[in-house]
Amino acid sequence: LALLRLFPGMGFRAVVQRVESAKLLVDNQDEWVYIARGIVVYIAFRAGAREADVAKYARWLLHSAKTCVDSEDKPASASAVEADVLIVPQASLAGVFDARKKSISVVGALACHSASPKAHL
Fold it and tell me: What share of the chain is helix, strand, coil (3-state, %, to 5)?
């Protein structure tokens, strides 16, 4: 499953992928994070992104979007099946494709870093 969900005017873009398991190298050396069955959310924030919009999207993604399947292979939300969630900053999603240069410009993407506050949804 790959779901690109654009929310016009909300200042971010996300791609969601259903996985049986996933791991991500965090420090480019030997620190890994792992999840079991769940979803990986690749997300990019652009200028104008508001915390309230991101919280609204996160609630929709976890509680309403049918991104997972239950034990009977029926569509279900991540919260309904207690799926793991891995969030990966992906600045290129905020980019704009330039057909002349055949490249993506990520000017206007906001940086994400480990010092960002965590919110309970």
Answer: 15, 40, 45
Any alpha helices (H) in the chain, and if so which ranges? Answer: 51-63
**CB 39 within 8 Å of CB 2:** no
What amino acid is encoded at 30 in this protein? D
pLDDT at 21 over 70: yes
Q: How many whole angstroms separate alpha carbon 36 and alpha carbon 20?
A: 6
Spell out the residues 6+ positions from residue 86 whose beta carbon is closer than 8 angstroms to its own: 22, 24, 33, 35, 38, 39, 40, 41
pLDDT at 119 over 50: no
Return phi, psi of residue 45, to 5°.
-105, 140
Instruction: Give the pair of three-digit tokens for residue 21.
Output: 């398991």
| Mean pLDDT, residues 18-23 | 94
